């Protein structure tokens, strides 16, 4: 029987609540089918550790993670620590050294969940956003001089490399090819940003030649928000830069009903290096400790993790259970307009997995 080494990093706030729920469901699934076991190690990395030691994770932490098959992550961010310290001190400190360059964000309107879009009942909105996850606007280049003086200057430099753009473009075209509609939209802002974004357009056109079976088009990011809202059915796979896709995928999550259901995978396609799976949302201090965090995003990302590990049957079973649970509106948490708790939703998942409902 296969055994997978999972690094669980719940992080801060509701991260702990949803990761615990996710692990419970994963364990139930493994026990039911007996196809695989999970050998989970728990890491206390996050803001509490920062308060104690001055670091969110130990030095060499990302190296330690290389020994695992996958990383199951919650969220990072605390009210008393600046957000750029927590993000760069943990999440990006894992994604960047492990070169998880493709951030994959599926969006669907799950059964029972209402889209805020009037004409969308479900099938009209079925997207996967591929976010460049290693460079672009979040490459980490920049600086500040003359801090606090009237002449203070700050730069935030976007980096686009041909190698970086080409690999994300190939990843997106492959993904588009694997989906029934074989349709890719490449998002840029190449009218105003005339260097990096023009390179992005040129590389897209070059890579497209290797994918004659994929239909593709280009959108400027501002117009893309309009198309997502007014013509969601015209989109399928979407590729965009680190910043653009960060914003578009939050919009996508909202259009599909809630940020509490949106999953993501930070993928390094090299199987020897672990990829990282997490809900899109953050640590949500406003609801931390109340027991009402929606765990659906974490269940969905757990399904993506199983799929990545090659456990397709278990991944599909988990997604099936998710759809059974969301279809029952009495199991909706407050973010979806309901009154259910994290515990209640998790129990319903466990029941669906064991076939008890
Ligand atoms: P957030 O995603 O934590 O919360 C935004 C809103 O959505 C809040 O009203 C929250 O209650 C709600 N929400 C989020 N997840 C939910 C869930 N599972 N169930 C029900 N409601 C949910 O974003 P916010 O407030 O901008 O950031 C809070 C902290 O999280 C900050 O420190 C931020 O830097 C961090 N953050 C971390 C991320 C990560 O670790 N990947 C991603 C986004 C934010
Ligand atoms: Mg975001």
TrEMBL record:
InterPro entries: ICDH/IPMDH, IsoCit/isopropylmalate_DH_CS, IsoPropMal-DH-like_dom, TTC_DH. Its cofactor is Mg(2+); Mn(2+); K(+). Pathway: Carbohydrate acid metabolism; tartrate degradation; 2-hydroxy-3-oxosuccinate from meso-tartrate: step 1/1; Carbohydrate acid metabolism; tartrate degradation; 2-hydroxy-3-oxosuccinate from L-tartrate: step 1/1; Carbohydrate acid metabolism; tartrate degradation; D-glycerate from L-tartrate: step 1/1. The keyword Calcium does not apply. Its EC number is 1.1.1.83, 1.1.1.93, 4.1.1.73. Residues 5-349 form the Isopropylmalate dehydrogenase-like domain. Keywords: Manganese, Metal-binding, NAD, Oxidoreductase. Pfam families: Iso_dh (PF00180). It catalyses: (2R,3S)-tartrate + NAD(+) = 2-hydroxy-3-oxosuccinate + NADH + H(+); (2R,3R)-tartrate + H(+) = (R)-glycerate + CO2; (2R,3R)-tartrate + NAD(+) = 2-hydroxy-3-oxosuccinate + NADH + H(+); tartrate + NAD(+) = 2-hydroxy-3-oxosuccinate + NADH + H(+). PROSITE patterns: IDH_IMDH. It comes from the Bacteria. GO terms for molecular function: D-malate dehydrogenase (decarboxylating) (NAD+) activity; magnesium ion binding; NAD binding; tartrate decarboxylase activity; tartrate dehydrogenase activity. PANTHER family: D-MALATE DEHYDROGENASE [DECARBOXYLATING]. NCBIfam families: TTC. Has multiple catalytic activities. Apart from catalyzing the oxidation of (+)-tartrate to oxaloglycolate, also converts meso-tartrate to D-glycerate and catalyzes the oxidative decarboxylation of D-malate to pyruvate. Belongs to the isocitrate and isopropylmalate dehydrogenases family. This is D-malate dehydrogenase [decarboxylating]. It comes from Palleronia aestuarii.
């Amino acid at each position: 029987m296969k055994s997978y080494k999972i690094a669980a990093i719940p992080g801060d706030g509701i991260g702990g609540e949803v990761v615990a729920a996710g692990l419970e469901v994963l364990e139930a699934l493994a026990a039911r089918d007996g196809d695989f076991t999970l050998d989970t190690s728990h890491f206390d990395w996050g803001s509490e550790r920062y308060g104690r030691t001055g670091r969110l994770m130990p030095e060499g932490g990302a190296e330690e993670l290389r020994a695992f098959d996958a990383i199951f992550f919650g969220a990072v961010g605390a009210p008393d620590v600046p957000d750029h310290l927590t993000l760069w001190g943990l999440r990006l400190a894992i994604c960047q050294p492990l070169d998880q360059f493709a951030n994959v964000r599926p969006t669907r309107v799950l059964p029972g969940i209402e889209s805020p879009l009037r004409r969308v009942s479900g099938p009209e909105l079925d997207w996967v956003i591929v976010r460049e996850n290693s460079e672009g606007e979040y490459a980490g280049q920049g600086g500040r001089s003359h801090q606090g003086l009237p002449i203070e200057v700050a730069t935030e430099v976007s980096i686009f490399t041909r190698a970086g753009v080409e690999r994300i473009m190939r990843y997106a075209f492959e993904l588009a090819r694997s989906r029934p509609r074989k349709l890719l939209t490449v998002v840029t802002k190449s009218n105003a940003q005339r260097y990096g974004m023009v390179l992005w357009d040129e590389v897209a056109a070059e890579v497209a030649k290797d994918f004659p079976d994929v239909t593709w088009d280009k959108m400027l990011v501002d117009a893309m928000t309009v198309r997502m809202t007014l013509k969601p059915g015209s989109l399928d796979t979407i590729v965009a830069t680190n910043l653009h896709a960060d914003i578009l995928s939050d919009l996508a999550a909202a259009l599909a009903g809630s940020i509490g259901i949106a999953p993501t995978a930070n993928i390094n396609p090299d199987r020897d290096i672990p990829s990282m799976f997490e809900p899109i949302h953050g640590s949500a201090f406003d609801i931390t400790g109340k027991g009402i965090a929606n765990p659906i995003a974490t269940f969905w990302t757990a399904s993506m993790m199983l799929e990545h590990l090659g456990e397709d049957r278990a991944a599909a079973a988990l997604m099936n259970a998710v759809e059974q649970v969301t279809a029952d509106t009495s199991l909706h948490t407050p973010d979806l307009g309901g009154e259910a708790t994290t515990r209640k939703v998790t129990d319903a998942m466990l029941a669906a997995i064991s076939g008890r409902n």
